[in-house]
Amino acid sequence: MSGLPYAIQAGLQLCHVCGNACPLAGQHCLRCQSSLHRRKPDSVARTWAFLIAALIFYIPANLLPVMNTLMFGNASENTIMSGVIEFWEGGSWDIALLIFFASVVVPSLKFFILGFLLITVQKRSRWAMRERSKLFRFIELIGYWSMLDVLVVALVTALVQFNALSSIEPRLGILFFGLVVVLTMLAAMSFDPRLIWDAEVNDD
């Protein structure tokens, strides 16, 4: 074991709500009265459940159209990738890159990293624990960008509506993508990064 002290060795545990250091034997936080747990209850199982559900919803989110555009009498329905291509070919490369980053890059990173963290935690791996903790903090950081695609669709919708000869409407795909965003956020919130370090504490 490393020379760094652990809260459990000092007889303490942190409240998940307010972060207060409480006695290990306590059942409720002395500050906010929330229930105390050494680790988030069923963290691995909950995270897997949210992550798998997000992966399932990500399929129709990419296959179904996210918006229907009517411009000068011509109607077209776009999926995420066809929308990226259309914006790129239309010269709006900045919007195309924004949608691609928020709709493809961010979800893919979250799926891969969370899955990797879950597998290594279940295997009680002691490999690169500090780096894996940094990966989790990275996931929390990019999670704030997850709603960009939905916001872009809303923005484009508002802009097009100013033209009397054009209109744009959201389609079912955007609903599934919104569910993916929510589920991946819940997966990240359910994962307890302290599980990464439990292998070191319990193996020594």
Structural class: mainly alpha
Question: Which sequence of strands runs across the widest sheet?
Answer: 4-3-5
Strand content: 5-15%
Q: How would you sum up the global shape?
A: elongated
Gyration radius, rounded: 22 Å
Unreliable stretches covering 5 or more consecutive residues? none
Biggest β-sheet description? 3 strands, antiparallel
* Second-tier CATH architecture of the largest domain: Up-down Bundle
How many β strands by DSSP? 5
Please tell me about this protein's structure:
With 204 residues, this protein is mainly alpha-helical. The protein has two domains: 1-38, SH3 type barrels (Roll), CATH 2.30.30; 41-203, Butyryl-CoA Dehydrogenase, subunit A, domain 3 (Up-down Bundle). It is 57% helix and 10% strand. The protein has a three-stranded antiparallel sheet with strand order 4-3-5. Strands 1-2 form a two-stranded antiparallel sheet. It is elongated and about 70 Å long. The protein starts with 11 loop residues before the first strand and ends with a helix. The mean pLDDT is 75.
